[in-house]
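pinned: reference chain
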Amino acid sequence: MQVKLLGQANYLDTYQAMQSFTAERGAETQDELWLCQHPPVFTQGLAGLAGHVLHAGDIPVVPTNRGGQVTYHGPGQVMAYPLVNLQRAGYFVKEYVYRLEEAVIRTLSHFGVTGHRVPNAPGIYVRLADPFAHQALTGPALPNDPFKGLGKISALGIKVSRQCTYHGLALNVKMDLEPFLRINPCGYAGLQTVDLFTIGVNTSWEEAADVLAHKLTSLLAP
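pinned: its structure tokens
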């Protein structure tokens, strides 16, 4: 897998480039991993409901063909876009998503943070009261509030075309979190969003991107 650092990249340009790469790639095209950060933008998934955008203000809302609902991208967030031929890799979409999440969990572990999965809610979450605690989640405190006591630190949304992936995941490092208050993040009203900085980890975008890239290239190998 070839890793490409795109720096700060316009979202729509990156989205269109991923579509073109996927449409034009052949059976022997090398997989790639694109890493970047975007100027402020809200992106809406295919099933996205307009009502989940509470107040976009001066931030553009871009419709996309990825799965999921609305989320926010901005400076200080690592965007990772794996462009993987799943047929050649030898695993299916469910396993691919699991590996993406596992890469984030292992990246967080590198910084001493414990990441958690929540059933039926793609992405990675941390315990707000103690993000460094290692105990596994034992289930929500309230059946109707699976996110009680949790904050979302990584969002995930993918598209698979001709058995090849694009879109990917976001890891919040050190960013302005206010725009998340303008939406129901990933379709969940009141879901708190956090970054590494707000839970006590002061690292650079470059270091976080480097660790995540190593975890992804290892875990996404055939």
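why pinned: The radius of gyration is 16 Å. The first strand starts at residue 2 and ends at 8.
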